[in-house]
Design goal:
With 304 residues, the chain is of the alpha/beta class. The protein is built from twelve helices and ten strands. The protein is 38% helix and 20% strand. The chain is globular.
């Protein structure tokens, strides 16, 4: 298993650029440019994703399993913030973001960096941002939340500050529903899940920012709150994004990735195996188990 590296979150474009350049992929030399025909192709691909966002983690290990079979070396960059990840992708410090939300959730990053990013295709078409509660909760709609201010402690439990879900919650949901008296608590997905576990263990009221597909929905028996104002936006697709020029350099990989598609059951079982059924560090075994259970999902690999 290739060790996962981490890009530190920093403030300021210059500092970010230096940090990413220090730990990013080694750029291909002119002699390694796949476009030159006879010259050898650099067959190292760096996958960048936020490790606590388990859609990217799951699909990254699936790509690793498959692309290593055709002679590629796969490296992982575990990035802590979405903005840093899109910067790295645009600069070529990572080659592929394997589960991006560019249509709605990350649209502001696409507006900023889209001219330096290639879309290799979407593998899942029903991703959705939510505010959610445990099934036992009395709260049915985001409109109901003010009635439960006391039991909620005027808090909505969120995830990373730079996440598109956080931006939608702060700048759309809260003003649309008049929730200015509520604090949107942001830190990390891991911290949100810890708060959610504590609340559900005690059967206490809690509202968290979530999304689908995500394993926590079934593990904690979560229910999406109604969003009659549509403040969280429409469903969107999950895409494989690449740094500009990737498809020209690795056309066989780009073509294969562009054919990948998964439905709810296939994707859900992949994430469940990687995140819940196997220990961290055993992702290769999780992928092997998923492939054995889903033998006809993936397109045929190109020749090595």
């Amino acid at each position: 298993m290739t060790p996962t590296r981490r890009i530190a979150t920093t403030l300021g474009a210059a500092t970010v650029a230096v940090a990413l350049a220090a730990c990013g992929s080694t750029p291909a030399s002119p002699g390694n440019d796949g476009a030159t025909g006879d010259a050898p192709v650099d067959k190292t691909i760096t996958l960048g994703y936020i490790g606590s966002w388990t859609d990217g983690r799951s699909t990254a290990h699936l790509l690793e399993n498959q692309l290593e079979q055709i002679g590629y070396t796969i490296e992982h960059e575990d990035v802590s913030e979405a903005g840093v990840l899109y910067t790295a992708l645009a600069q070529g410090d990572v080659d592929i973001y394997p589960s991006a939300w560019p249509e709605v959730t990350h649209v502001k990053y696409m507006e900023e960096y889209g001219d330096r990013i290639e879309d290799l295709g979407a593998y899942y078409d029903n991703a959705k941002l939510t505010w959610a509660v445990p099934e036992y909760s009395e709260i049915q709609s985001i409109e109901d939340i003010p009635e439960y201010a006391d039991v909620l402690g005027n808090r909505i439990i969120g995830i990373e500050p730079s996440a598109g879900l956080t931006d939608a919650s702060q700048n759309s949901v809260i003003p649309e529903y008049g929730l200015d008296s509520f604090e949107l608590v942001t830190s990390s997905t891991t911290a949100m899940l810890a708060e959610l576990k504590g609340a559900t263990d005690a059967e206490k009221e809690i509202v968290v920012t979530l999304w689908r597909p995500f394993w926590a929905n079934s593990t904690f028996n979560m229910r999406d709150l109604d969003d009659p104002k549509g403040a969280l936006g429409e469903a969107e697709a999950l895409h494989f994004l690449a740094t500009k020029g990737f498809a020209e350099k690795h056309p066989e990989v780009a073509d294969w990735i562009g054919q990948l598609e998964m439905d709810d059951q296939q994707y859900g079982s992949l994430e469940d195996l990687v995140v819940n059924q196997y220990e961290e560090g055993d992702e290769a075994d999780a992928i092997t188990a998923w492939l054995e259970a889903n033998p006809n999902v993936l397109p045929e690999l190109p020749k090595a």
